[in-house]
Structure formats: structure tokens, C-alpha cells
Amino acid sequence: MRNIPHSAIQEAKAILQDAHRIAVLTGAGMSAESGVPTYRDAQTGLWEKYSPEQLATREAMSNQPELVWSWILHQARVMRSVQPHEGHKALGRWQKQLDANGGALEIVTQNIDDLHERAGAEVLAHLHGTTFTFRCFECDAPSDYVLEDATEEQLEARPELDQMVLEEPPACHSCSHGFIRPDIVMFGELLPQQAMDDALEAVRTADVALVVGTSNIVQPAASLPIAASAAGAKVIEVNPNVTPLTEDVDVYINGTARNVLPELH
Ligand code: NAD
Ligand code: ZN
Asked: What CATH number was assigned to the domain covering residues 1-36+85-128+191-265?
């Protein structure tokens, strides 16, 4: 096996083969090899001058709705146009197998894309919401807006060449003055309570927490592996870079989601 530390994989497999309940915690790195950039890599071209923390806030959306809506649309179209990879698919198969044997593999993700679902896995909690359903920015009424598949032109519009045409967010049909936003958690907003409760329950009852592709910086998601460990779970981390969590995990696998996950199951 190239580039993946063999002994770490063996150690992880030894732990996982006795596990009945596995909580898989995924972040942007899970989707990176499908072609969705992580936040660290996402801000190119037109977006270079803004950080996600500047764009994904209520204040920014209120002050510059076209700019924020277009940034969100651009990301959503990229997410729509890519495919799940072997790592997503391995989790889908693993989940079905554990389910059939009376165990469980619960997926808790910070990702707003739907790549786990498209790989045949069920997601217990989307901690930061999802980018394909919408509601009103003002009155919160759910919207039936459907994100259409991106045209070649939209996908090829190169933000780095300033060729992106800014689009206005569609108006809300329930109130007279609002426009719509996706069901994502913006910086400064609270996480959906049910998702966080489900996530905590999953890590507290897990034998193993498998943490994949998250920088473990954004709270409260970053507290979940700690809660798992405190409740007695073994913690395994898969990430090509070390994170603040790494020194506390039971096994650290220096590798990528697509390469490592199929090896673990
Ligand atoms: P992050 O961008 O802060 O960190 C990504 C992590 O993934 C890093 O630690 C990096 O080393 C690791 N990584 C990179 N490539 C990898 C690979 N191929 N395999 C495994 N790991 C890899 O992302 P985060 O920790 O998820 O948190 C930041 C926020 O970004 C979250 O709120 C999330 O909602 C949002 N986000 C979501 C998406 C998405 O939905 N796909 C994309 C970008 C950002
Ligand atoms: Zn409204």
C-alpha cells in the first residue's frame, strides 16, 4: 500500500473488527477527493478577497445578498456536479452490513453536500445543514425553490477570471419582502438542536469514533470526538494533516478518505 502507514491501518482494523457501533464524523476533507474544495482551498479568484467567515454570515447576506447568494450557488453547483468516491461508497456498504448484524454505523457530517447519501449511506446528522433545501431569510418559511443542475456554462464560469455573473436570490412567496437562503448554518448561527442531540447520542453510545477529514477547529463539532472518548469510545483519525485532535486519538492514520476508508472495511 503506497503512502498509507500500514501499521496504523492494522491497528485501526483490529479495533474496528470488534466494534458494533461506529460513529463516523466527517468534514470537508471527506469530499475533497470528489472535487469539492475544503474551506482552506475554496477561496480562489473572485472569492479570494473574502473569507468564508465574511461571506457565510447573516450580516453579509443582508448587506450583499447577490454576492453571498452567488457564492453559495457556485459551491452548490460544484457539489451537484461531482460524484461520491470509493471512501463514501465504503461507508455506505459498511453501514448496511452493520445494520444487518444488529450494529450501527452513524454518520455525523459537517458537510452541506449530499455525497454520503448519493453513495447509498444514511446520514444521521448534517450539523451544518444542507445546501439543497431553502427557506426565507426573513420569515423562515420553507421554500420550494429547486436548485437546477448547473449548465456547462455556469460550471465553467471561472470565478478567478471575474466572469461570474452575480445572481439575485429569488424572492420569498410567503412574505412580501424576503428572499431565500439555503438551510445551512452560517457563522454565528446556532446548530440545529436535533442534529446536535443525535450526534451526541451517537458518539456517547459508540464503541469507536472514526474522524475523517475535519480540521477539528470549528465548534461545537470539534467537541464530538472528545465526548466520544470521554464516554469510553476509541478514537481513530483519518487526515493527511495533523489537527488539534491528533495527539489525543488512539490511532492516527496519515492518509486520505478515498484511500483509507476502503482499507478499513
Ligand atoms: P476544513 O476545510 O476546515 O478542514 C478540512 C480538513 O480536511 C483538513 O484538516 C484537511 O487536512 C483535511 N483533508 C484535506 N483533504 C483530505 C482528504 N482527501 N482526506 C481526508 N482529509 C482531508 O473543514 P471542516 O473541518 O469540515 O470545517 C470547516 C467548515 O467547512 C464546516 O463548517 C463545513 O460545513 C464547511 N465546508 C463544507 C464543505 C462541504 O460540504 N463539502 C466544503 C467546504 C467547507
Ligand atoms: Zn419570507
From this structure: 3.40.50.1220
